[in-house]
Amino acid sequence: MHKIEIKSNRIAPEEKDPALFYYGIRHVDGDWGTPATIEPFVAVNFWGTLISTNSLSDLFKTADYYDLEPEQVSVLFNQADSGEAFDAALLFPSLKKTEA
């Protein structure tokens, strides 16, 4: 199963597990509390880090970022800093269709 975890902090390069994939979550301009996109790396407007057991490169096929829907923002709020990995299909329902 594809698992992800959400952290509110940046993960230092030396602390990253090479077996995992790390993505930045960008917040809305002018509202530090509302996540807006998931990106391979976020330099400014950083909201958090998404850590994944699988690559999410398919999300970025048409753009350098993935726009979050309101339902996904709710999942991020509920899971942030819980310390537990959860099924990625909860955040990205399309992943349910691709898993065996």
End-to-end gap: 9 Å
Count of helical regions: 2
Order of helices and strands: EEEEEHEH
Overall pLDDT level: 90
Number of domains: 1
Q: How many strand segments? A: 6
Shape estimate: globular
Could you characterize the architecture of this molecule?
It contains two helices and six strands. It has 100 residues and is an alpha+beta fold. The chain has one domain (3-92). A six-stranded antiparallel sheet has the order 5-3-2-4-1-6, with helices on one face. The longest helix has 10 residues, at 70-79. It starts with a strand and ends with a helix.
Features:
single chain; 100 residues; alpha+beta; six-stranded antiparallel sheet; 2 helices; 6 strands; 15% helix; 33% strand
